Amino acid sequence: MNHASSPEAVARRLIAEYNRGLPDWVEAVHAETTEWIELPFLGGAGRSGGRAELRKAAELQVANFPDRRMTLLNVVADTDQVALEVEWTGTAALDTAWAKKGSGLTLRAVLILTVKGGRVVKEVDYVIAMPA
Fold it and tell me: Residues 4-58: pLDDT tens digits?
């Protein structure tokens, strides 16, 4: 495996693409057949699906929090998996279930990625809200 397709390199590319502010980060790093699981968060049931469902979630997030950003806090990589600890911040562009328009939101998340051929084939997200 070359360095650019290593799990850690793909994970770092995911963060960089995400922080560009567009939902295109999904296609930039995820395989067409990717599996996505977001565990229950802030009273929600959680979400899951493939790349199309992840793209829809990314589009909604960009609309609700256009300035959202992930900061990488920790990375642990293995042969085909990587765990990322990130801090997510954003300002609500409108009232949402989690924040009032104009208020900031800070989350802490762990993303577990499985990487094959330089693409994410599985993403599992564990997200918690941080105190205001």
Answer: 789 999 999 999 999 999 999 999 999 999 999 999 987 778 999 999 999 999 9
CATH at 28: 3.10.450.50
φ, ψ of residue 33 to 5 degrees: the values are: -100, 20
User: Model-level pTM greater than 0.85?
Assistant: yes
Cα 19 → chain centroid: 10
How many structural domains does the chain have?
1
**Can you give the residue range of the structural domain that contains 95?**
3-129
Q: Which two tokens stand for residue 74?
A: 């920790």
Strand order in the sheet with 69-77: 47-49, 30-38, 119-129, 104-116, 81-91, 69-77
